[in-house]
Amino acid sequence: MKHSILILGGTAEARKLAEKLAGDPRFATELSLAGRTRAPAEQPVPVRAGGFGGAEGLAAYIRQKGISILIDATHPYAAQMSRNAAEAGRLADVPLIALRRLPWRRLTGDRWTEVASVDDAVGVLGKHPRKVFLTLGRQELLPFEEAPQHHYLIRSVDPVDPPLDVPHAIYLTSRGPFAEADEARLLEEHAIEAIVAKNSGGPSSYGKIAAARALGIEVILVRRPDLPAVPSVETIEELLTWLDHVPVLP
Ligand code: NAP
């Protein structure tokens, strides 16, 4: 019998992993998305979208669909979903493996300030007006309304709707990957003095970090949330090797 895999996704890695598994005769794979993006990227396997209703809801879905392997390939900041996955795997008694990319490490020349929350990032920007590039999710932007003195350049996948209640904001909608040269051009064009971002890790959004280093621009990085302690790997290759060792179903 085939293993039924549920990948909790929303990341480039989840899509790449699904691509690898799509043609594999050992597995029937489904990808789950949070359903927040209006026009999600094309996916190589069947997709379901929207919340499950907490850990119990996910456990019920696993049982109902006969899922035999759960893969948490969500974004490193999607901590609630990762906690739910850990709990649901336990409740439904299915093996769970997490695909967690490493965070970026500070290199010589990086001007990073690491903060615990978006609110703290707003505080670090200070009272003096600055030109600030924000690459955060729509739900994370509200705290910047408390600092209307800054000029914001805001980039998101979907439009920020309603826009922030601040007098100076330019909005860009765009989906990565973003090359360093293009990021450097954008930063210079808008005379950016500080960037506020998440430490997403991986190559697709690293361009702005490398460009900021080259241009001497401050980067305020919101630290990663704590994630549950579950078996995990850092790369798709390691995950495929892990799958090679999963016992075959009778
Ligand atoms: P979250 O706070 O961990 O998740 C909140 C709820 O959304 C979950 O409890 C779950 O609802 C639902 N959910 C999340 N991922 C899901 C998935 N793959 N399939 C089905 N339901 C899912 O995560 P978030 O609110 O999406 O985002 C938190 C942070 O991660 C933000 O910084 C965001 O920018 C970043 N991020 C998220 C994604 C993504 O695809 N989710 C992608 C890129 C970046 P139920 O409890 O009802 O099941």
Show the helix and strand layout:
Layout: E1 3-8, H1 12-22, E2 27-33, E3 47-49, H2 54-65, E4 69-72, H3 79-92, E5 96-99, E6 111-115, H4 118-125, E7 131-135, E8 151-156, E9 169-173, H5 180-189, E10 194-198, H6 207-215, E11 218-222, E12 232-233, H7 236-244
Parallel strand pairs: 1-2, 1-4, 2-3, 4-5, 5-12, 6-11, 7-8, 7-10, 8-9, 10-11
Approximate shape: elongated
- Quickly give the CATH architecture of the largest domain: 3-Layer(aba) Sandwich
Largest sheet: 6 strands, parallel
CATH topology of the largest domain: Rossmann fold
SS element count, helices: 7
Strand content: 15-25%
Strand order of the largest sheet: 3-2-1-4-5-12
Could you give the count of β-strands? 12
Helix content: 25-40%
Characteristic key phrases:
Rossmann fold; 2 domains; 7 helices; 250 residues; 29% helix; alpha/beta; binds NADP nicotinamide-adenine-dinucleotide phosphate; six-stranded parallel sheet
Description:
- The model has no long low-confidence stretch (mean pLDDT 96).
- A 6-stranded parallel β-sheet has the order 3-2-1-4-5-12, with helices on both faces. Strands 6-11-10-7-8-9 form a 6-stranded parallel β-sheet, with helices on both faces.
- The relative contact order is 0.17.
- The chain has 250 residues and is of the alpha/beta class.
- It has helices at residues 12-22, 54-65, 79-92, 118-125, 180-189, 207-215, 236-244; strands spanning 3-8, 27-33, 47-49, 69-72, 96-99, 111-115, 131-135, 151-156, 169-173, 194-198, 218-222, 232-233.
- The protein has 2 domains: 3-102 and 226-244, NAD(P)-binding Rossmann-like Domain (Rossmann fold), CATH 3.40.50; 111-222, Glycogen Phosphorylase B (Rossmann fold), CATH 3.40.50.
- α2 (54-65) packs across α3 (79-92) and α5 (180-189) packs across α6 (207-215).
- Helix content is 29%, strand content 23%.
- The chain is built from 7 helices and 12 strands.
- α3 links the parallel β4 and β5 (96-99).
- Bound molecules: NADP nicotinamide-adenine-dinucleotide phosphate.
- NADP nicotinamide-adenine-dinucleotide phosphate is lined by residues 8-11, 32-34, 51-54, 57-58, 74-75, 77-81, 84, 137, 140, 198.
